[in-house]
């Protein structure tokens, strides 16, 4: 920081804003860009989940428990879907290749709300006949299409990380900023609180906080509760780092200058201290989002997160707990793969962001 | 040094008190208690339940319960598990041993593989070894515990090479000591590997970057300039200086592992502290919950504490105050 301030202005290259420099360095990192693109695609899919999914998350098909994946196939130039019939009792199904129906695009099906607002019933693809279902990944223990549920589940998993980070990092930024800037008794008290929160194993703290709420709540309530819990547990580590940065920043001359100009404490914190921590904040946010996603998965997996019939990746994985099911119907693990891809993409992006934000190495 | 240790131990007391108070408060906020489900059982008379409630002080306010619990703890009595009907201490100690067993095996696996791999990747920077290792590290960091445990269960069930969960077979008590040992090892391998996998990736990446950093240092160039062999340069000069940050990570991963591998223990039915705590949470076995959370916190803090001491032992520049 100081080194750049002291370099003579004459030698400077054409002025690039720090963000532009950051972006230029990031663009060079293939892995980070791959991660970013995967994430953009995933988020777009999540936003239009209702449209892309052939069924609703709670549409059950009584004759299709644990149905194996059924893929449309080319018959000439048309995509067709075979009819499947259940063999006596045993969750095995036979495809009847002679009896097929064409796959239609933009077909009417289950009703849903596009973007959560506009009632709609047009789906990207489908056959329009439940006897000829398209199960791209298979069906679960209630005969629900796993592909559709994965898409609906992604709405929860992908958004909970972002919302959680927004809440907890704002908390961490404000508390850390105040604590480091003012110091003194408030600083000591806040940092003791941080230590308390950080010294309890995270998962125990999450579950004891979850336990303090009634076990059965509506899905929206559970969602809010999970966000609150995640924020409660993770503001502390953020606050500590921001405090450390604020401690060193407040000794810098530009802060003194700002104070001398008569700016209020709040303004100094918000306009001068916190912006200087942003590159750290953005990088660590990207690296922390996966943890949030995983905590939601674990909570739902343990049965205290999102409740049936709502779809969530953790809840869906719960069905794979039964080893007998797992052996016969391996597609129950699909949500695990979805979690893996999402977390991997976040790690790719976060790793690249960290390198790009690190001005020491070029 | 001793002063530092004593100071840190004294620091732990208010921390643990605060943790227990917080856990009590949260348990009190949670609707219902252990006897809520028992009340619906027509075979148990309301009188019995009232008597049991009074016995466990559950009919009183949470702070009264807390004071009662604290008083007993000072006398060495950590309360009674309502679900298991035995003292919480003996229950926790039995489970703690299992958690230690699992954690240390995982620790040995993770570090035993990660350190050599990290060194190898750093020495062969930008070769296929390095690229494979960093790809695997990304995969390892991104596979959720839940998925890996389920895959391990699937693998065990599909091949039949490993037991599907549990820590010992049903005939364990009838075996000779030698057989008992192998029985435990046989049950331990799979959960330990799953637990090690997530740690392994992080340690390897860290080892690689630390060693790369020191290899750029001037004393390494100096050592090479003096004509020392590459092996000597790396192992005697670079590696010894690169290991410091890893000691910190060691303490951190020790702390993480000690406080219980909740997910792995739950899915793979390993009877450790993590599983006990989750079960106690769901059964609302309040004293057991508080005891295990306090225990896990103490272990977490102790792990970090060990890390500090280890670092001071390894690095003579660090003085503990």
Structure characterization notes:
- The complex is a heterodimer of chains A (362) and B (321).
- By secondary structure, chain A is mostly helical.
- Chain A contains 14 helices and 5 strands.
- In chain A, the strands form 2 sheets. In chain A, strands 1-2-3 form a 3-stranded antiparallel β-sheet, with no helix packed on it. A two-stranded antiparallel ribbon of chain A has the order 4-5.
- In chain A, a hairpin with a 2-residue loop joins strand 1 and strand 2.
- The relative contact order of chain A is 0.14.
- By secondary structure, chain B is mainly alpha-helical.
- Helices cover 76% and strands 0% of the residues of chain B.
- Chain B is globular and about 85 Å long.
- The termini of chain B are close together.
- In chain B, 38% of the residues are buried.
- The model of chain B has no long low-confidence stretch (mean pLDDT 81).
- Classes of the chains: A mainly alpha (362), B mainly alpha (321).
- The interface between A and B is large, with 40 and 45 residues.
What spatial order of strands do you see in the largest sheet of chain A?
1-2-3
Which regions of chain A have little confidence, pLDDT < 50, spanning 5+ residues? Answer: none
Number of strands of chain B: 0
Tell me the major beta sheet of chain A: 3 strands, antiparallel
Note the overall shape of chain B: globular
Proportion of strand residues of chain A:
5-15%
Write down the Rg of chain B.
24 Å
Major sheet description of chain B: none
Q: Which radius of gyration of chain A do the C-alpha atoms yield?
A: 26 Å
| Count of distinct strands of chain A | 5
Mean pLDDT of chain B: 81
Overall helicity of chain A: 55-70%
Task: Please write out the topology.
The complex is a heterodimer of chains A (362) and B (321).
Chain A: H1 2-6, H2 18-27, H3 30-47, H4 49-52, E1 73-75, E2 78-86, E3 93-102, E4 104-114, E5 118-126, H5 146-182, H6 184-199, H7 202-211, H8 219-249, H9 253-260, H10 265-273, H11 278-301, H12 313-318, H13 323-328, H14 334-357
Antiparallel strand pairs in A: 1-2, 2-3, 4-5
Helix pairs in contact in A: 2-14, 3-5, 3-14, 5-6, 5-8, 5-11, 5-14, 6-8, 7-8, 9-10, 11-14
Chain B: H1 2-29, H2 34-39, H3 46-55, H4 62-74, H5 88-123, H6 128-142, H7 145-159, H8 177-215, H9 218-225, H10 230-242, H11 244-258, H12 262-267, H13 273-283, H14 286-314
Helix pairs in contact in B: 1-4, 1-14, 5-6, 5-8, 5-11, 6-8, 7-8, 8-10, 8-11, 9-10, 11-14, 13-14
């Amino acid at each position: 920081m100081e080194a750049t301030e002291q370099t003579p202005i004459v030698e400077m290259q054409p002025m690039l804003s720090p963000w532009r420099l950051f972006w230029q360095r990031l663009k060079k990192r293939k892995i980070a860009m791959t991660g970013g693109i995967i994430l953009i695609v995933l988020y777009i899919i999540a936003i239009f989940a209702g449209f892309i999914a052939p069924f609703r998350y709670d549409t059950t098909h009584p004759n299709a428990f644990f149905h194996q994946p059924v893929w449309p196939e080319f018959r000439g130039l048309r995509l067709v879907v075979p009819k499947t019939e259940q063999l006596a009792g045993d969750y095995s199904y036979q495809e009847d290749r002679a009896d097929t129906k064409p796959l239609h695009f933009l077909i009417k099906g289950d009703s849903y709300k596009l973007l959560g607002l506009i009632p709609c019933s047009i789906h990207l693809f489908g056959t329009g006949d439940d006897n000829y279902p398209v199960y791209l990944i298979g069906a679960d223990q209630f005969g629900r299409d796993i592909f559709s549920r994965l898409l609906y589940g992604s709405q929860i998993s992908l958004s909970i990380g972002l919302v959680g980070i927004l809440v907890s990092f704002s908390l961490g930024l404000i508390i850390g900023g105040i604590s480091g800037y003012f110091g003194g008794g408030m600083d000591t008290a806040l940092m003791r609180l941080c230590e308390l929160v950080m010294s309890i194993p995270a998962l125990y703290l999450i579950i004891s906080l979850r336990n303090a709420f009634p076990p059965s709540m509506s899905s929206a309530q559970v969602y809010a509760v999970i966000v609150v819990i995640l924020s409660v547990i993770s503001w502390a580590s953020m606050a500590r780092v921001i405090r450390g940065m604020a401690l060193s920043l407040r000794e810098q001359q530009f802060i003194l200058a700002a104070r001398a100009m008569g700016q209020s404490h709040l303004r100094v914190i918000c306009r001068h201290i916190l912006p200087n921590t942003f590159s750290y904040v953005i990088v660590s946010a990207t690296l922390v989002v996966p943890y949030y996603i995983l905590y939601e998965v674990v909570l739902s997996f343990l049965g205290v997160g999102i409740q049936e019939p709502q779809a969530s990746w953790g809840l869906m994985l719960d069905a794979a707990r039964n080893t007998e099911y797992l052996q016969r119907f391996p597609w129950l693990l699909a949500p695990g793969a979805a979690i893996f891809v999402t977390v991997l993409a976040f790690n790719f992006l976060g790793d690249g962001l960290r390198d790009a934000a690190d001005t020491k190495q070029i | 040094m001793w002063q530092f240790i004593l100071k840190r131990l004294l620091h732990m007391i208010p921390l643990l008190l605060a943790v227990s108070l917080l856990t009590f408060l949260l348990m009190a906020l949670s609707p219902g208690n252990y006897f809520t489900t028992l009340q619906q059982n027509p075979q148990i008379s309301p009188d019995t339940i009232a008597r049991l409630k009074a016995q466990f002080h559950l009919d009183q306010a949470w702070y009264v319960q807390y004071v009662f619990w604290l008083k007993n703890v000072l006398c060495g009595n950590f309360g009674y598990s309502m679900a298991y009907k035995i003292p919480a201490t003996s229950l926790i100690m039995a489970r703690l041993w299992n958690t230690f067993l699992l954690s240390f095996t995982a620790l040995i696996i993770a570090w035993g593989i990660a350190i050599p791999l990290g060194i190898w990747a750093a020495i062969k920077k930008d070769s296929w070894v390095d690229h494979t290792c960093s790809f695997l590290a990304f995969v390892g960091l991104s596979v959720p515990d839940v998925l890996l445990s389920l895959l391990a269960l699937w693998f065990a069930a599909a091949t039949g090479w490993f037991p599907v969960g549990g820590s010992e077979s049903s005939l364990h008590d009838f075996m000779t000591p030698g057989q008992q040992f192998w029985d435990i090892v046989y049950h331990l391998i799979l959960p330990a590997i799953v637990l090690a996998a997530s740690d392994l990736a992080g340690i390897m990446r860290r080892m690689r970057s630390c060693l790369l950093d020191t290899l750029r240092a001037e004393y390494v160039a100096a050592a090479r300039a003096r004509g020392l062999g590459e092996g000597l340069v790396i192992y005697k000069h670079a590696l010894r200086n690169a290991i410091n940050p890893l000691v910190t990570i060691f303490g951190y991963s020790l702390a993480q592992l000690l406080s219980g591998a909740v997910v792995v223990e739950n899915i793979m039915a390993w009877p450790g502290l993590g599983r006990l705590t989750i079960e106690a949470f769901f059964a609302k076995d309040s004293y057991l919950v508080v005891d295990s959370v306090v225990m896990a916190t103490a272990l977490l803090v102790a792990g970090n504490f060990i890390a500090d001491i280890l670092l001071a032992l390894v690095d003579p520049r660090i003085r503990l105050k």
